[in-house]
């Protein structure tokens, strides 16, 4: 129940103040059942956390996976059980290695390691990391310094302390820590790490609202491309136009005529456009989920598109099942979900050149890549103007998945002090300022174009400069300290 309750701390509910309370419940139970079943406690907490938190995955499995209800529920449980392994591992290490009175210090490094594993194993799935729940809380002020990862560490340390101080009525310790973390976050949040310069970009983002079941039907290629063209026609004079992930449903080598015509139209007004498209190499038989730039480049009023030009980005972090099939030789053919269209992509490089459109430079992330801050950081440069993330959340219907996706994008803006442009097929399309606040957004499930003047920023944040270096060092030192400190039979002795 405590794990499932974490769902209400994330968007669209955003009850951020519940996070430390629910985590404290876990550590309180661990302290009282430490010698019995810490791994099972952690696993059950994780099963509730992910079972409720990413329940929206069931929508895509049930509606588009072609499995019966029992099969889709079983696959969903299997995914959540896998993710629950990581909090189970954290609880087991905490109980078996460290003495209870030092858990508040030790949990920082233990949680850091297990969450890193979750973001890395099988290409990683770092969704619902604890820090995302705090984008609307005073703790968000720490994000430009230590990132979402650092905020997650602060949360587990605070919650673990609460689980030991409140039952013993040591309220002063709890109050001091509360004021230090939340008051310090509020005061730090008042500082502007990056500042807008005198320039603004005229940005348009197009939301086509194409139904998922129509996206890969060949007969729908022309209607889909015509719809995006029509939604864009009133905005040829903008600096930058963005279409979402795979907005052009044809394979790029087969869509060259359409792209060349679009390139010339954009060049006539000095406009740059970035669109998602699938590139397929017929010789190597490799497919890539890509973004390409068309129209004006570096402010020149001439097109620059010619297949396969270098002004493109290929997705690096591929989604298991959706974009690549683990153990493909065994799983292909077992069920329709393992034979979805466009489910066998090749990976792009971890670091790639920023996209250039008009005179703007953008660091791209496709779909759930926005949940990987280390990858975003590796592709940011002093000249980067915006972070660009495109997605197609039509897979998840009217669930809370798209809201969580937008929340993650807000955290990236806060961490790096740079605006994030988020274009999606059916919502939530929006523009996020450098402080993580939404400047403008479109309603879901409507075909519209969003246009706004977005300021360009200068400067950098400590997190953009150092990443998770200081969090890792301090957490490791805290863990080493707990092994060195003297033994005691009393908590907080």
TrEMBL record:
Listed A to Z, the keywords are: Acyltransferase, Cell membrane, Membrane, Transferase, Transmembrane, Transmembrane helix
Where is this protein localized, as stated in its record? Cell membrane
Keyword presence, Transmembrane: yes
Transmembrane residue ranges? 13-31, 40-61, 73-95, 102-121, 141-159, 171-190, 469-486
Membrane topology qualifier? Multi-pass membrane protein
A UniProt-annotated Pfam family: LNT_N
Q: What is its EC number?
A: 2.3.1.269
Tell me which InterPro entries the record gives.
Apolipo_AcylTrfase (IPR004563), C-N_Hydrolase (IPR003010), C-N_Hydrolase_sf (IPR036526), LNT_N (IPR045378)
Its annotated pathway? Protein modification; lipoprotein biosynthesis (N-acyl transfer)
Presence of the UniProt keyword Nucleotide-binding in the record: no
All residue ranges annotated as the CN hydrolase domain in the record: 206-456
CDD domains in alphabetical order: ALP_N-acyl_transferase
The entry sums up its family as follows: Belongs to the CN hydrolase family. Apolipoprotein N-acyltransferase subfamily.
What this chain does, per the record?
A: Catalyzes the phospholipid dependent N-acylation of the N-terminal cysteine of apolipoprotein, the last step in lipoprotein maturation.
The entry's protein name is Apolipoprotein N-acyltransferase
Q: Which organism is it from?
A: Lacimicrobium alkaliphilum
